[in-house]
Amino acid sequence: MIKDQLGIACIGEWHVHGKDFADKLDKYPNCRVTAVCSDIPETGRAWAAHMGCRFEPDYRRVLENPEVDAVMITAATSDHGRLIVDAAKAGKHVFVEKALAVSNEEAYAIQKAVTENRIHFTMSDPVMKAPQMFVKRMVMEGTLGMITNARIRVVHPLGIMGQHKPQFYNKAESGGGTTIDLGCKAAHTLYQLFGKPFSACAMFSTYTDMGKANGIDENAVVLYRFPNGILGVAENGWASPKYQYSLEVYGTEGCVTIHDAETAYRLNSGCRVTVQEAELPEPMIYPLDDWIDSIKKDRPNRNYGIEEAVHITEMITAAYRSEGMETAI
């Protein structure tokens, strides 16, 4: 039964985007945040007061509450498996911040629970904005000819500046370093463009004392091999001197690039063309919008669903296994 008013509980304060998501949720028509659940009572109560809802430290009681239709999970990645499986079994819809899980086995258990209990699930990782959709259109329409290789770089300086949140250096909670963080965005973009890869080969580096003490990757390069011989390089790190985003896709008939805010392409038959903002297509639907709409209309979500989330987990875990074994996976 589709309810007029959708009650959503916010679970966990581990991830930095949790409170932003909650503020957005509260602005959706016929949606309201009904509870905040956190293992840090002081900040959890403050968050609940800000949202004008109750604070509930017991997750079990949140799931038993008939006023809670869905949960937004921004807890530690290592807790995702337990939290999502329990929510699915309780019939609660789930929105979760990337990454989905710290292992393939946990991801498969989540997928089983989501599928068997027929809940609406979305993972937040909005990588396909207007410029990326332009790149995808050129790839899908064959404008670049046969695609040969691609490179994506997603980096920031917070690690070497000592400004990153300390929980990202807690391997037991995060599941890893930059590869399971920014590497999700890089891998996810390549997945959106080329599908699921066959293999991965990774190399990591660490620079700070905190990174070395905790065995955290702060800089990473992962080479993925996709169908049709496409090679995709994913560079990600917390050790760049500045924030930087680059995406380059090369084919036999030309190339298309995104460098920070500029999108451009060059075909073999012509000159370099800078794409104006008005020429860009619509971005892929924002994950939170898609999730809310899928629940209200009881329809399948368009993107960022459980199968996609599992595939991204497989790409990330393959990178970690490859680096650990010093071989391609």
Quick rundown:
This is Oxidoreductase, NAD-binding domain protein. The protein has about 325 residues and is an alpha/beta fold.
Rg estimate, integer Å: 20 Å
| SSE string | EHEHEHEHEHEHEHHEHEEEEEEHH
Percent range of helical residues: 25-40%
CATH superfamily of the largest domain: Dihydrodipicolinate Reductase, domain 2
Low-confidence stretches: none
The CATH topology of the largest domain is what? Dihydrodipicolinate Reductase, domain 2
Estimated structural class: alpha/beta
How many beta-strand runs?
A: 14
Count of all domains:
2
Q: Count of helices? A: 11
Main sheet record: 8 strands, mixed
Strand residue content: 15-25%
Instruction: Tell me which CATH architecture of the largest domain applies here.
Output: 2-Layer Sandwich
Tell me the overall shape.
globular
Structural commentary:
By secondary structure, the chain is α/β, with parallel strands linked by helices. It has two domains: 140 residues, Rossmann fold; 155 residues, Dihydrodipicolinate Reductase, domain 2 (2-Layer Sandwich), CATH 3.30.360. Helix content is 35%, strand content 25%. The protein is built from eleven helices and 14 strands. The strands form two sheets. An eight-stranded mixed sheet has the order 8-9-10-7-11-12-13-14. Helix 4 runs parallel beside helix 5 and helix 8 crosses helix 11. The longest helix has 20 residues. The radius of gyration is 20 Å and the shape is globular. The model has no long low-confidence stretch (mean pLDDT 95).
